[in-house]
Automatic annotation (TrEMBL):
Record's protein name: ABC-2 type transport system permease protein
Keywords: Membrane, Transmembrane, Transmembrane helix
The organism's place on the tree of life at top rank: Bacteria
Regions crossing the membrane: 44-67, 88-116, 122-141, 162-180, 192-213, 220-240, 260-276, 288-309, 315-331, 361-382, 388-416, 437-459, 471-495
Record organism: Microbacterium trichothecenolyticum
Amino acid sequence: MMGGALRGDPRDVVRRGIGVVLLVAATVVAAVSAAGLADADRLTTAVVTVLAGSAVTLGFAVGPPVTASVDPLDPRRFAVVGPEPRPLAAALALAGFLSVPVLVVLVLGASLAVAWGAQGASALASIASVVLGLTTCVLFARVSMALGALVQRPRQSRELMGVYLVAVLVIVVPVGVFLGSLEWRGAVPSQLASAAEVLAWTPVGASWGIAVAPSPGAAFGSLLVSLVTVVVLALAWFALVDRLLTTTPRPVAARERAGLGWFAILPGTPGGAVAARSLAYWLRDRRYIVNVVIVPVAAIVSTIPLLVAGVPFEVAVLLPVPIMALFFGWLPHNDLAYDSTALWMHIASGVRGASDRIGRLVPVILIGVPILAVTLPLAVVAHGRWAILPAMIGVCAALFLAGLGLSSISSVVAPYAVSRPGDSPFQQPQRSGSGGVVAQGLVMVGALLAALPSIWLTWRAVGGEAIDAMLALGVGIGAGLVVLVVGVALGAALFERRATRLMEFAEAT
C-alpha cells in the first residue's frame, strides 16, 4: 500500500513525492534537534520530551477524524475472506507499525533516546519509553479510525467541519494562551514544568515520561499508566474489530442527500434525532441565538459594579466565566416551551424520556463548552496565577453541569409561555402565575448550592492554598456530574409521566 501511493496519476505522484521529501527533511531537522538535547539540562529535556510526545500522541488520536482519513487497513475490507476477529485484529495492529508517520516517530524517538542516554537514563528505560510511545500512538490511531468507520461519514459536511474547528479551538486557544503568558528568563518556566509533570501521568504523555522522570517513583508511575493505556486501547481495538466484522453498515445513499444537516451527522437514534432538531433550532432560531449572545455580555457587565465598589481586579476578573457557566447551564430550563407544536412528534412517536432529555442538552454543551474553554484561560492569565486554573475548572463544571441537570427537571415540571416562533425574542407573553419565576430561581439557586463546596475551596486557593485548587477540581466535577445524572434521570421519568400535560401546554401556547 505504501508503494501503491507512488503510482497512478502523474500529478498525484508528484505531489506525494514532494510531500515525502519535505517530510524527510523535517524529520532530519527534528531528529538533529532532539539529539541536541543531550547538551541541555535534565529539566529542559524532560519538559520538551513530555510535551512533544504528548502532542504527537494526541495527533495520532484526533488526526484521523479531523482529516477524514480513509483507513487502508479497515477490518471490513478483509471480511470477504471470512477471518476470525482476534487474529485479524492482532495482524492489523502489527501492520499499523508499518506506516510513514510511525516511522517518523521512531526516528524522533531514537534521537531522543540518544539525549536521554547522555543524561544518565538507563537503556532499559529509554527502550521502554520509545516502544510504549510508539505502541500507544499506533493503537490510538487504530481505535480512532475504527470508531470513524463505525460512524461512517463518507464525506465532510459543513456541520461536521464546524464541529472539528470548534474542537481544535478548544485545544489550541487555551494552549496558546498558556504558552503566551509564560515568562522565559533563560530557563524553563515553572508553569511549563508543572504542565509536563501532569502530562507524564496521563495516557497521552505517560510513555514519554518514563526515561526522563525525576525519580524512580515517578518513572514507575508513568510506566504503570502507560501499560494500562496500552492494555485498554488494545482491548478497545479487539472489541471494535469484532463489532466491525459482525455489523452490517447501513446504506448511506439517503444520508448523503443534501439538506439533512445535523441529521446526517448525529447517530440515527431517538436521542440523536432530538439533538439534531435541537441544534437546528439553537443555530437558526433568533430566540435561542439572542439568549446565547446575552450570556457573555451579561457576565462581563456584571463585573463592572464590583470594580467600582473596590474589588481587586485580579479577583473580579475571575467572576465572568463562572457566571457564564451558570447561565449556560440555566438556558435549557424552559426548552420545551420553545418547541411550540413540535413537541407532539416526540410524544406521538414514543420517544423515551432519557432520549429527549439528553438530546436537548447537546446544543448547550456544544456551544457552552467551547466558549468556557476559550474564556477560562484568558481569565486566569488576567488573574496572574495559573495554579488557580484547576479550581476554576471545578467551579465552572459544577455550575454548568448542575444547571443542566436541574434544567432537565425544570423544563418538564414548570414550563412557562415564551415568545412564539417568528416573534421578537424580547417580546414576552402574559403569564397567569409565578411558576416561571420560581422555576428560574430554583435552577440557579440549586446550581449555586451544588457548586458551593468547590466555590469555597476556590476562594481558599485564591488566597494561596494550592492544594485546595486540585480539591476544588475534583469536588466540582464530581458534584456537577452527580446532579446532572440525577437530574436527567428524574427529568426523563417525569417527561414520560407528564406527556399528556406537556402536549396540552405546547398546544395552548
